[in-house]
Amino acid sequence: MFDKLPVSSETEKILTKSLDEEITVEEANHLMNIQGSDFYPLLATADYLRQEIVGDNVTFINNCNINFTNICTVRCGFCAFGKDVDDPEAYILSDEEILAKADGAVEKGAREFTLMGGVLPDADIEYYEHLLELLKGKHPDVSIHGFSPTMINDAAILSGIDMAEACERLKSAGLDTLPGTAAEILTDRSREIICPEKVSVQEWIDAVRTAHEAGIPGSATIMYGHVETLEERVEHIDIIRRLQEETGGFTEFIPMTFMHEYSPIFLEGQRNLGATGTEDLKLYAVSRLMLRDLIPNIQVSWVKMGFRFAQVSLTAGANDLGGTLGGDELSEASGAPDGVEASIESLGNIVRNLGRNPMERNSKYTEFYPID
């Protein structure tokens, strides 16, 4: 495959191996650091594996973000969305406002509500159960992709129950899948800098494992391009890989490039923030080589990258474009380059222009719907 390409011997050895098996952490670290003529063979290998594993369909979901509050007691250094309780811009949506957002999304064909928000100081399991039952009572056939490991962990503590009971209760109330958010970078060194108030690495792993054991699958994410090293990016992916080998509960892996312009750590003077374009593409490609078909779906976040670069990223091992994302105030507050809502038509055009097949999907990647 590499006979006529100007690729170094070490990179060629790793890429050749990756065609048949997962690469190691050491090999992934090598690939994260490549430059020059080694770069395109990496992308080509990841794209080849993508085609072998999931074919030429590019999937996405018609969904709507319902951010029920921007009040957050966990004020992370990367987040431009969260507000203090006494901030004049702070809000908590009423039941009527939540249902109005849901009704509008369903009128546009939404198959999923992404139910997220800040970490409220008094949000216990009963509060989250109420939100789930509110939405399921009105729209029982729409999936709910909701909350985060941090939110559920804090709610369980507030309610005096363990994570297992918390997950069982949320599932019974209507939670279908769990976003893999609050992962950020799964190394304690970086977390101490950007999100010291969130769950630790081990607490995140334990929370997600418990959710999977309770029958709540979900996504895995990585938020990169802030204070972490290239090696920590690989360490994060390896943690996700090992957890997936144990539980099989991850439906997709979502790299999210850090949008730094409005983040507190940038405004407070932290510099050298934000990944470069080649770093973005290397992360997608290395993720595919590490995860292969263990997590077959790798998602491009068009809302973080913009439509054009999201399309390019689909040539680096990814096969999913996320969702239409109506109402993503979190990304909007961070400066999403192409807005925070897309139409089925616009996502379909991006895919067709690439010579691939657009397919709408459900939350769990178990049902697919061709796009006209």
Description of the structure:
This protein has 372 residues and is of the alpha/beta class. It has helices at residues 9-18, 25-32, 39-54, 95-107, 125-138, 149-159, 163-173, 188-194, 201-213, 230-247, 264-267, 277-291, 302-305, 307-313, 329-334, 344-353, and strands spanning 57-61, 63-67, 112-116, 143-146, 218-224, 250-257, 320-323, 357-361, 368-370. Helix 5 (125-138) links the parallel strand 3 (112-116) and strand 4 (143-146). The radius of gyration is 20 Å and the shape is globular.
Primary descriptors:
16 helices; 3-stranded parallel β-sheet; 372 residues; alpha/beta; 4-stranded mixed β-sheet
Radius of gyration: 20 Å
Strand order of the biggest β-sheet: 7-1-8-9
Helical content stands at: 40-55%
- Low-confidence sequence ranges: 331-336
Largest sheet: 4 strands, mixed
Terminal Cα span: 36 Å
Give the structural class.
Answer: alpha/beta
**Mean pLDDT, all residues:** 90
